[in-house]
Amino acid sequence: MVGDISYSTGETASLGDVVELDGRMGLVVACIESGQYAPEFPQEQWAYLETGVLWEGVEIGIVHIPSLLEPDIVFIRRKRED
């Protein structure tokens, strides 16, 4: 692991986190700095971004978020373990 990226509340981003981006709900599908990638988003295709997370929203698809400290990004909860 190279490093971690954190939300403004201090929690470290993790794969599967539920996050609100500009009022839209979605999931963290890759944490680039810590090397966590969902199977459908392989490291080989996304590591070139170097920082931040990939967020997937139902309405708008995949968004690269370089920093989670922006005011329009809200950490909602961790992935549910069913």
How does this model look, in words?
By secondary structure, the protein is mainly beta. The chain has one domain. Helices cover 5% and strands 35% of the residues. The chain has one helix and six strands. The chain has one helix at 43-46; strands at 18-21, 24-31, 36-37, 53-57, 61-65, 73-77. Strands 1, 2, 3, 4, 5 and 6 form a six-stranded antiparallel β-sheet that branches. A hairpin with a 4-residue loop joins strand 2 (24-31) and strand 3. The longest helix has 4 residues, at 43-46.
Total domains: 1
Strand content: 35-45%
Low-pLDDT runs of 5+ residues are none
Order of helices and strands: EEEHEEE
Give the biggest beta sheet. 6 strands, antiparallel
Helix amount: under 10%
Summarize model confidence as the mean pLDDT. Answer: 91
Rg over alpha carbons = 12 Å
Q: What spatial form do the alpha-carbon principal axes imply?
A: globular
| SS element count, helices | 1
| Secondary structure category | mainly beta
Termini gap: 26 Å
Q: Give the tally of β-strands.
A: 6
Quick structural gist:
This protein is mainly beta and 82 residues long.
List its traits.
6 strands; about 80 residues; 1 helix; single chain; mainly beta
Would you spell out the secondary-structure blueprint of this structure?
Blueprint: E1 18-21, E2 24-31, E3 36-37, H1 43-46, E4 53-57, E5 61-65, E6 73-77
